[in-house]
Amino acid sequence: MKIRRCAVLFIEPREDLGIDWAALFSGAGALSASLRWVALAPHLDRETSIDGDQVAALGAIAQTAWTERADADLQLGAAMVDSLLALGLLLDDGSDANPARERDAVLRAQHWRPLSAAAHMFSRWDGMLVDKGMHFPSFEELVQSYGAPPEPAIERGDSAHAIPLPAAQPGPLDEQLLRRYTGRNYDPAAPLPPEVLARLLQRTFGVQLESMMAQEALVFKKTSPSAGGLHPTEAYVLVRRVPGIAPGLYHYHALRHALEPMASLEPDDAREMARQFVADQHWFVDAPVMVVMAARVARNFWKYRNHAKAYRALMLDAGHLSQTFYLLATEAGMPAFVTAAVNEKAIERAFGLDPLSDAVVAVCGCGVAAAGQTTLELRYEE
Ligand SMILES: Cc1cc2nc3c(=O)[nH]c(=O)nc-3n(C[C@H](O)[C@H](O)[C@H](O)COP(=O)(O)O)c2cc1C
């Protein structure tokens, strides 16, 4: 039997802070710190505490080339090798079912940059309640907690000789640009007309042109730019109130311009799912649709293999799409939102997405505005 180390592994000297009660009562400094090694291996999707001997042993086994198990036993001791195999940090070449080995193979197949894989896998939430489910914090509260924010605009260079520019001339984009705002007060009963949803999806995520760039390399043109022209972002739709489309989960097919049903939902379950998706930000929950943006990483990493900027490009791609989505919603007379404060793991479970290959980036949505403004919004004066 042969063994090797998992493809990606970072080891963090983790500091756990606590109250040292004995020191507190003796009048000494009350903060205690304990240190441990934490193995961050994205294929495992969980943090693993290990000891210093295990750290050293992991450093002695290659991650690409295979090592004979017998040789590793001689070098490190069979018990050590067994412990690391059991944790899934070392992998054997056996043919038995081994979830750690299978997940490691998925990770290797995507061409992730190691730091990006770790950042992605260990920044996902599950069951998170933003602001403890209370409310959207006002700027007054933020200033109270953190003091004044850094200034909103800065001077750089020769500001004494700054060249004044003419005021922006009115232009056709102003209509949408100047009315766009993040809606945080949605009418809980108003539906989203299906033709509005269709236009939003087609003009944000749909294919405007297709081009065969090389044999077997079909490339789409969309209304937003995308790194390498690859458009890895898929749109997964949670439908709540769209006449003619049953509440449920759908995948938007960019080329066919069609919603592929993935699961139907009772309205109450759809509401609960929406709440979980946006980490209990109740100001978004009444939106009649939400669109999850999830990057099919293999599509981007096909070109940008093990690339330092590839993950950043995925985030930027989704950002561009969300602005396009906002502007189309504005055109339809509605506010929109985008949020990265999402419970990725709940979304992955709902749509059956593997975070190593389909990276949930953000959730956007839109809908008819409610009459009042209970939660803060930044609207232009009418
Ligand atoms: C990447 C990103 C993440 C955001 N996340 C949240 C969020 O979690 N909750 C929220 O209420 N708004 C969120 N927003 C909306 C911003 O708060 C909003 O754009 C900002 O307050 C300015 O308001 P405006 O969009 O109306 O101009 C997010 C916006 C962006 C671009």
From TrEMBL:
Superkingdom, taxonomy of origin: Bacteria
Domain Nitroreductase: 178-367
InterPro entries per record: Bacteriocin_Proc_Enz, Nitroreductase, Nitroreductase-like, SagB-rel_DH_2, SagB-type_dehydrogenase
Native source species: Massilia mucilaginosa
Record CDD domains: McbC_SagB-like_oxidoreductase
One Pfam family it belongs to: Nitroreductase
Taxonomic path: Bacteria, Pseudomonadati, Pseudomonadota, Betaproteobacteria, Burkholderiales
Record SUPFAM superfamilies: FMN-dependent nitroreductase-like (SSF55469)
Name of the protein in its database record: Peptide maturation dehydrogenase
